[in-house]
Amino acid sequence: MVNLGQQLSSLIKHTPLIEDPMIINLAIKGVIDYFASSLQAKNENDIRKLLAWIDDEGGTARAWLVGQKKLASARQAALFNGFQAHCLDYDDVHSDIRGHPSAVILSALIASIKLDKPLSKIDGRRFLTAYIVGIEVMALLGKIVNPQHYEKGWHTTITLGGIAATAAICYLYDESFGYQALTLAATQASGLRLVMGTPIKFLHAGLAAQTAIQSVEWLRAGIQADKNFLDDKLGFLAVYGQGNANVDLSHWGKPWKIADPGLWFKTYCYCSAAAYIADAGQLLYQHPQFAVEQIENITIYFAPPKSDAALIYHHPLLAEQGRFSAEYILALTLLGIPLNFEQFSPIPISKDVQNLMSRIQRSYQIQLTPHCDAYNKRYVVVEIVLKTGKKISQRIDIPKGSPKNPYNQEQMISKLIRAIGDQQKAENLLNDIYKLSSGIDVYQFVTTHIYTL
Fold first, then answer.
1. What angle do CA 192, 195, 198 make, to 5 degrees?
2. How confident is the model over 288-309, as pLDDT tens digits?
3. What is the CATH number of the domain that holds 139?
4. Which of 227, 244, 372, 403 lies 20 to 30 angstroms, CA to CA, from 33?
5. pTM strictly above 0.85
């Protein structure tokens, strides 16, 4: 009988260093965005709370807490870095995953670097390849289990992220126990979308990264997990998905999923599922016949049905819940309120915004031809009925920031500079991130920036 767990672990272990300039450049973009997302959040109140908890718990200071000028244990660093990277919902997503890969995978990889006991050189090219491999595993599993897994209520950032980050660490250090590590990570998979709109949603990224660290460390300590995590009857896909029928490992890296469908970057701090609504709202706001006081009612049409599963709040009360509310995002946009960080803090939503939200409804009764480049055949139409009886509408198929409608390099670098707040420090970090592709020692990379960011 075919052992899919062994096949996958073998593919991971025997992946050669990736040298394709296009693929490496995509990984470099992911690393740049990771640091931009992390450093933007470093002074958030919830970050302070987790730092206080880490200080209270104590432990061996050996791994980098990104942006905090301090070290912690590897497990603490993984938890913290993942939480921080995802804390503003400012980090990248992947349409196959329906979740956030880099906040988990890069947080785990960085936390795995033990600064108190440096091993032999960690080649930057192997680090980037490990990151790409992690995304490949996460997207591979996501494509198999979704949309049912996500729509049922699982948060894929954590259910798939821990397995993916474990694969990445095993690749980075060429571990012999990758097969068991995937099983150990899989048995820790958990996480409900129920907690979206609370800080625990962001903690999921940290918990997934921590799963990877402890899975590898427990196996290094000699604890065994010699089971096939893709067992036909009791394996991960049988329990969390629809079984192994759709597993196809013959196209590993052909193409790499960091390239196709690719990472979706964000310059906004709300769920990417709401990007369709924000883009439509901004265009409608500029419509010559639009006036907010003339709105009678609004319908947001989603296709296909359940494509709004991430937008769980129809009537949010707190602005932080609005990250996952089509109604809140659209109301802000049509009122001309900037979609900045302040609009998603844990404060009550204003009466003006609530009043406009009350005139917005969702519908799935629409059957238009999907755009050929649309992700999973998704599109959104926002239709506004004015008090005159006239209707104005806007359709969005490919939101800004998605792989088929990307930000340019200047916009991505600007995101990092804004997060750091210091042009020279940003340039220094950028230069070293680019050097990863030429094999800079990752230990050197980390130690250079621990006390400067």
1. 150
2. 999 999 999 999 999 999 999 9
3. 1.10.4100.10
4. 372
5. yes
